[in-house]
Amino acid sequence: MTIAHLQNDYQYYYEPSLFGRYINADHLKNLLEKHSEFFEVAVIGKSVLNEDIHFIKIGTGEKRILMWSQMHGNESTTTKALFDLLNVLSDHSNETVNNLLAAVTIGIIPMLNPDGSRAYTRQNANEVDLNRDAQDLTQPESRVLRRCFDSFKPNFCFNLHDQRTIFSAGSTSIPATVSFLSPAQDEACSITETRKKAMDIIVKMNEVLQKHIPAQVGTYDDAFNINCVGDAFQTLNVPTILFEAGHYCNDYNREKVRALIFQSLWTAVMEIAFEDLKGIQAEAYFKIPQNEKLFYDIIIRNAKLKIDDSCQLLDVAIQYEETLDQDLVVFIPKIVKFSDLSHFFGHKEIDAKEREVFVGDHQHLKEGSAIDFVTINFQKHHLNV
Fold it and tell me: Its GO CC terms (predicted)?
């Protein structure tokens, strides 16, 4: 992947020590030490279980950008992309990078929720969703972020997340591989000047991404929730952008999506540094399709199933359940629904052609059960990633 304004392609900046879905604080230790040679790296707080929360400060420019990742501990794709970005920003042989760092100051919290990251859970160790704690600030991690926001005084915020595989880019059979949101600033979802600046950046990122993943970019519903961090910071008149790393075909480790998030981050930072954001792209922003929940990981279509002592012709929806097994995230196929799924799509689809579908030793399928394969017409179909 060639990146505008960079001397080398993406693989040159790719951070090889970070791979896959499971990223905890141990994975970042050596990288933080490495980057402390070029940037300011400091501990700015502790998690519930007393793990360090780090802050990386880069550049000297007037425009200040605050980014945070792994607010949800099991959402690690953007963390990987951040360390790819740090490899770029440490390349002082690149004149563009030097000019960039003279124009902006970037503050990064690479892992806001180290306890959740270690346990591979969305919540922190107190089972609180930090992205619903923006007002009450009941959790130490929430207070760390808010203190950082208050002291750093950003002009822009990037709220970095992963999204589930269920989302489509609009009412289509195309997955939402990358999604964005300029959060609402009030209950009326008014199109404020603050939101417009965030929209300008999103429109530019979308333009770049369309060259690589045409029609695979979506936006989220902007329903207002003051307890969400993005909405809370937007109400303080700081343009805030939600980044969501989604699904690309057969990319359950999210390595291809990681590259797309990296490119989006680079594009956004360049826009802030060198462009005059006039807030004129709202119309283009609202043309980006809004995410819908139209996908399952696997759909078995036209399956003959025995349900309540009768045979029925239905579709079978299978969703992967992510489970941490030592230091590896395992994707367990689970049957979630028997239904007519003609208005839904599978990242993988199997046509049973009205034949009976069995699991194991000629056993019938049951909702909620975990299965590795199904048998159709004496042929095994494996379901694992």
Answer: extracellular space
How many Å apart are CA 155 and CA 277, to the nearest integer?
12
R_g of the chain, CA atoms, integer Å: 22
Q: And the tokens for 324?
A: 């941490």
| Residue 314 neighbours by CB under 8 Å, 6+ apart | 303, 305, 307, 338, 339, 340
* Average pLDDT by stretches of 10, the chain with 385 residues: 82 96 98 96 98 98 98 98 97 92 98 98 98 98 98 98 98 98 97 98 98 97 97 98 98 98 98 94 97 98 89 96 95 97 98 94 90 94 95
Q: Where are the domains of the chain?
A: 10-293, 295-382
Quote the DSSP letter at residue 13: H
Please determine, looking at this structure, whether the domain spanning 10-293 carries the CATH number 3.40.50.2300.
Answer: no
Global pTM value: 0.97
203 vs 209: CA distance, rounded Å: 10
Contact 79, 18 (CB under 8 A): yes
H helix intervals, 210-367: 229-235, 255-274, 282-285
DSSP assignment of 344-370 = -EEEEEEE-TT-BEEETTTEEP-TT-B
Catalytic: 255?
Answer: no
Architecture per CATH, domain 295-382, reads as: Roll (2.30)
